[in-house]
Design brief:
The complex is a heterodimer of chains A (119) and B (117). Chain A is mostly beta strands and 119 residues long. In chain A, 0% of the residues lie in helices and 49% in strands. The relative contact order of chain A is 0.32. With 117 residues, chain B is mainly beta. Helices cover 0% and strands 50% of the residues of chain B. In chain B, strands 2, 5, 6, 10, 11 and 12 form a six-stranded mixed sheet that branches. Chain B has a four-stranded antiparallel sheet with strand order 3-9-8-7, with no helix packed on it. Chain B has a two-stranded antiparallel sheet with strand order 1-4. The N and C termini of chain B lie far apart (41 Å). The chains are: A mainly beta (119), B mainly beta (117). Chains A and B meet through strand 5 and strand 10 of A and strand 5 and strand 6 of B.
């Protein structure tokens, strides 16, 4: 398993500002992901955070809006840039653990999320 | 493309009664299937998964799920519900593209389970 800490747990932000969310894992992990959970909706994958290289973004998400850093195997940041009320969501950091199998068969572990409200 | 359907937004059950949370999927090839639970103001917690083998898988907190390939379903069950089981439940699937590489997890829309005392 993995213990994941996210900061901040919640924040209220003004339109047009940017906020950086931090994700710290208690062990080295290969795969880290950032998800968005909009109010009353399911999880949508934003990007895969790659250590030492640019993140891999899913369709509909771009680096200018959601820049991601992954300086080492235990830490990542997600920035939500130039925020608007539509960015009000829970942002979740997640890691894949092989649990004795492979990355494909392993489950994901999630941080407790960062709840952003944009006014 | 792969997809997951959770047809019920809300499931209510009395404490002590059996519960079922439904999930159906669409994916190319053999699926890897997962259930997660989310308590209020918390992240998701892994409950159980089906990779291969026995169609009935057992997980945390007394939950189990049955993989049914012909019906493309993976319903979550528990013989006797507890009030503390009240939470949001997500089904997820991982399929594979033609090259054999795995796709990312796709989550269902979630089902809010309420267990009434």
């Amino acid at each position: 398993s993995a213990v994941i800490s996210q900061k901040p747990s919640r924040d209220i932000c003004q339109r047009g500002t940017s906020l950086t969310i931090q994700c710290q894992v208690d062990s080295q992990v290969t795969m880290m992901f950032w998800y968005r959970q909009q109010p009353g909706q399911s999880l949508t994958l934003i990007a895969t955070a790659n250590q030492g290289s640019e993140a891999t973004y899913e369709s509909g998400f771009v680096i200018d809006k959601f820049p991601i850093s992954r300086p080492n195997l235990t830490f990542s940041t997600l920035t939500v840039s130039n925020m608007s009320p539509e960015d009000s969501s829970i942002y979740l950091c997640s890691v894949a653990v092989t649990s004795g199998g492979t990355l494909n068969t392993g489950e994901l572990f999630f941080g407790e999320g960062s709840r952003l409200t944009v006014l | 493309a792969q997809s997951v359907a959770q047809p019920e937004d809300q499931v209510n059950v009395a404490e002590g009664n059996p519960l079922t949370v439904k999930c159906t999927y669409s994916v190319s090839g053999n699926p890897y299937l997962f259930w997660y639970v989310q308590y209020p103001n918390r992240g998701l917690q892994f409950l159980l998964k089906y990779i291969t083998g026995d169609n009935l898988v057992k997980g945390s907190y007394g939950f189990e799920a049955e993989f049914n390939k012909s019906q493309t379903s993976f319903h979550l069950k528990k013989p006797s519900a507890l009030v503390s089981d009240s939470a949001l439940y997500f089904c997820a699937v991982r399929g594979f593209i033609s090259s054999g590489s795995a796709r990312q997890l796709t989550f269902g829309s979630g089902t809010q389970l309420t267990v009434l005392p």
